[in-house]
């Protein structure tokens, strides 16, 4: 009993101290014209209602209620920080386009702890440019056109060949098999499907669940599991590094691997910690987002037979063109012909909203639409609010890939923020699109599918299908079976 009282006293002292601090810093800004809003509870602020799960095809009650009460730019206290929240397309674009000039990364401490302080997301200036150039080199055009496209084609075919004798598969896991194995092979030269690769995949699942979660480092919380997974993943990376360095000493150069780890070891002067965070982050960015994008496409297309038909026509046409040429695997030219597929991808990312927000900190005093954003203030660009704005996308709740076909549709790309923008625009955007296109290629030419039981994409803690997206699959009588 005494211990409990002592613990409570300790907790309340910490709470009061921290909240006094955060309110004082908010008080410094009294001279400014801040957006309206509610700071919620001390310390917790409005974090709990903000993190409440909701369908990822909506902005959720929290954003809905605050926006209708205070407007598209409002003040809140989220993840331990007073934050200007933007559901405004113009301010979101302004934030993304002015990264490093007016804004710097402003991710919460809990996210920094999980991803590591050397992660590219937290680098600024030259350090950011240097790490970004490593990422850009990793996904350069030459690599996309050959090893990545070839691996995507073969792994997707392999994944779907296992569906032939199944009636129900979990779309979420099937998508991960492609994207995770792609990253494992090209980052650490780990072979698809081996026990070591599978173990790493499981750890990454725990890691992904905890990145955006309530930052409580208590037993069995998503956050503490993510921290444990981080430690495991780093151990694997550092073991690989050690093996490579030993091999170099033994001059076994003919065995040198052609992957991101090797390239970084040979072309950077990064420390062990920096390499660990770089590899961990690229892996995470590269598999987690794309697997969700593929699962979302399976889900949306399952509810839109007309789009499947249109997509199938496009892919059958490409295959027929190839038969005359002889080679059955997809080439980059084939990929570039997939125009409607790109519309499906845009629409999937718009409506599915994989990345719910981007956090930054004002590095100087900013005035926007009559509001002050003081130096040091945190800002949150809520991307789904733009994608689901009816004044920007007609009937935004509908899955309508055709909206991207018309000239009018193309003009809307400035309101398409799925890959972020500006100096931090996703370097893996084309790789992600290509993996989605190749997966859809095998899917539509070989299978019909429908949801085996109701499921839907939920936002927060991170985008997920609670039931794993169970789909009934049926092999087409005229399946192309390039598997
Ligand atoms: C559909 C798939 C993808 C989506 C929706 C997506 C989304 C995003 C977004 C929104 C950002 C900007 C974050 C910010 O501004 O703070 C970003 C950055 C990043 N993405 Fe992706 N991504 C995808 C695929 C990939 C792939 C395949 C890779 C693998 C190489 C990757 C690696 C990265 C990296 C390294 C960054 C940090 C860039 C920087 O800070 O300069 N992403 N991604």
TrEMBL record:
Topological relation to the membrane, as annotated: Single-pass membrane protein
Cofactor: heme
Coarse class of the protein's main subcellular location: membrane
GO molecular function terms noted in the UniProt entry: heme binding; iron ion binding; monooxygenase activity; oxidoreductase activity, acting on paired donors, with incorporation or reduction of molecular oxygen
GO CC aspect terms: membrane
Protein family according to the UniProt entry: Belongs to the cytochrome P450 family.
Residues making up the signal peptide according to the UniProt record: 1-20
Cited InterPro entries: Cyt_P450, Cyt_P450_CS, Cyt_P450_E_grp-I, Cyt_P450_sf
Pfam families, per the entry: p450
Binding annotation for heme: 426
Cell location: Membrane
Keyword Heme: yes
Protein name: Cytochrome P450 90B1-like
Any one biological process term the GO annotation gives: brassinosteroid biosynthetic process
Keywords of the record: Heme, Iron, Lipid biosynthesis, Lipid metabolism, Membrane, Metal-binding, Monooxygenase, Oxidoreductase, Signal, Steroid biosynthesis, Transmembrane, Transmembrane helix
